[in-house]
Design brief:
Number of helices: 4
Number of strands: 8
Radius of gyration: 21 Å
Order of helices and strands: HHEEEEHHEEEE
């Protein structure tokens, strides 16, 4: 009889531990729309980046750049009401760059500061490139390369590529 009680108690403890561990795995993207800003900041800290948006509100971004692969963003109105907190560094989010004309300020306001800013090309046709570290398709250690023309004023193209930080050097391992 005691063995049965111990097994039941063990199962109950295992279920409770599993529930606690699963609760600890939630991310900012699990927060419901309308979560008060003070609640978000008390749980996740102050945002790393903010910018004003056209409707008089503010865009807030919590980012793990330059070394991390995640960033979350939400818009807040003047009354402190938030919309849905979204994971920003995903292929489907980057696709918004394909429509319209994006300035560096707009890209920074949409995704936060990049992990790196470089330039590529020949002296006569240099482009500014912003690189965002992210998990492509939730699996691949990647960089999203966002190119601005030679004058650096507008996005001209973007594409993902492997993140060299995670590439193994087989010659020296």
């Amino acid at each position: 009889m005691n063995a049965i009680k111990c097994m039941r108690l063990g199962k109950t403890a295992a279920c409770a531990l599993t529930a606690v561990l699963l609760a600890a795995c939630t991310s900012m993207a699990d927060l419901p729309a309308g979560t008060p800003l003070h609640q978000i900041t008390s749980e996740y800290g102050e945002p790393d980046f903010s910018c004003l948006i056209p409707n008089g509100g503010e865009r807030l971004i919590w980012t793990m750049q330059p070394m991390g692969q995640y960033a979350w963003g939400t818009n807040v109105d003047a009354a402190g009401n938030t919309d849905q907190v979204q994971q920003l560094l995903k292929d489907e989010r980057f696709r918004v760059l394909a429509s319209g004309s994006w300035s560096p300020e707009q890209v920074r306001c949409e995704f936060g500061p990049p992990a790196q800013i470089d330039s590529v090309g020949l002296p006569s046709s240099t482009s500014i490139v912003w690189s965002y570290r992210y998990r492509q398709a939730g699996a691949w250690n990647s960089l999203m390369y966002v190119y601005f023309g030679s004058d650096g004023s507008r996005v001209t193209r973007f594409h993902p590529g492997p993140d060299p930080m995670y590439e193994r050097n087989f010659w020296f391992d």
